[in-house]
Amino acid sequence: MSEKLIIQEDSNIAIYGAGTVADILYFRLSLLGYNNRVKYFVVTNTGGNETSKFGIRVVELTNIFQQLYDFTILIATMPKDQKHICGYLESFGLTNYLEINSDELVNSFFYDLQKKPIEKYKIIGQNQKTAGYGDNPKYIFEELHKRDCNNVLDLVWAVNAYDTTIPLYVRQVEYGSFNYYKELSTAHIWLDNSRKSSVVRKREGQYYIQTWHGAAPIKKVEADAVDSLSDNYIDLAKHDSEMADLFISGSEFYTELYRRSFWYNGIILKSGLPRHDVFWDLGRIKKFIHEKYSIEENIKIALYAPTFRTKYITGCYNVKLNVIAKALERKFKSKFVFMVSRHPNNCIEYSFEESDHFIVVDRCQDFEQILAATDVLLTDYSGCMYDFSYARKPIFLLQVDYEDYLADRDFYISMEELPYVCARSNEELVQKIVEFDESEYLKKLDIFMATMGNYDNGTASSRVVDYILQKFLGEF
Length: 476
Known about the structure:
- With about 475 residues, the chain is α/β, with parallel strands linked by helices.
- The chain has helices at about 20-30, 60-65, 80-90, 100-115, 135-145, 180-185, 230-245, 250-260, 280-290, 320-330, 365-375, 385-390, 400-410, 425-435, 440-450, 460-475; strands at about 15, 40-45, 50-55, 55-60, 70-75, 95-100, 120-125, 155-160, 170-175, 185-190, 205-210, 245-250, 265-270, 300-305, 335-340, 360, 375-380, 395-400, 420-425.
- The strands form three sheets. Strands 9-8-7-10-11-12-13 form a seven-stranded parallel beta sheet, with helices on both faces. Strands 3-4-2-1-5-6 form a six-stranded mixed beta sheet, sandwiched between helices. Strands 16-15-14-17-18-19 form a six-stranded parallel beta sheet, with helices on both faces.
- The longest helix has 14 residues, at about 440-450.
- It is globular, with a radius of gyration of 24 Å.
- The model has no long low-confidence stretch (mean pLDDT about 90).
């Protein structure tokens, strides 16, 4: 976008788009003094988008179009989407729009930011944009801080809002804000576990470590699931892999998967996954979680943590927690309390019949600590079953919508080949708990895990930091 953009003096502005391009346009409008005239971010479908950005509402066009006839509508999306959006606006009689040259806008934005020097000891990390202080990047941060005897590192974490639970040695920056992009443009090292926007520009002298968030050979991902991915996602995935200088892997399975399906030909560090280190520290983590949630020491934890559905089937989350808890208590001769981690994409769909009490852990930032404190895991198709396998404790799979889910997301390994106990109904699950043979289960589990070629031994964080110091930072 040129700074010569002319907007009528009395005209309010609606930005069509709610992604990174729209954010950058808003920043540029702010520099030009137009930010107070931006009244809406408009989208075709809100879907999983925020309800507001920078204090401005994000609204669907169908709900707001009658108010936009006197606005200037600025289309701030990827170029290939703009033609469709123009036609969509015109179908509502809206011709008062301008198409922003997104390439020019983005290149100019990052060019200005990248005039500032790279700060050698600045490292910026994030967890699936704003999922909280957790996953592999958190454990790398902790190990870096442990090694930083002279306090020279500037550790920066992207957040949705300021979080008092994040350690004070970590600086926080709001994800998607102007300051976020300033930090990103001057950090020496990026740590991320999901794909970055396709408009993000990495500069020479910066290093990008992609830790990824997957570990399990369960649901197909990336190029292996290309039919269920949008063109925009494929573009950003390829861009992300092109920027990456290093992927970290937890197993031979994932090393081969990166090569085959992640559009990546760079270096892969066979370190294990830093978040898995907690499974070599179970006693301490279990005590911490029991104290945090006021659970008596003699009470065991059962965790229900299902995955999301792109095609929701009614009843797939309707678990009889009380009935299952009683079955677990009879089988393992101990009292149980249920924790529930609802997936954010489907959290409104959950319904638990006759459940007296369960502890909601949806917002726990470090899900791996919850797993490490768990005694019995109940899930469906979630990759957390693989992480939890390191604890060598019982895993039960309740898959009431198996055929529908299989049609939507195929598996690398069939459910029948996995060592975990599967059931298709609450009633069958209770029966499977009654019949559970722990000795036989552990034999199958150990054989299965051995076939994956796992690298984890409780030192992954240390191995990754060793590599960072050797290749990127040097000693400090």
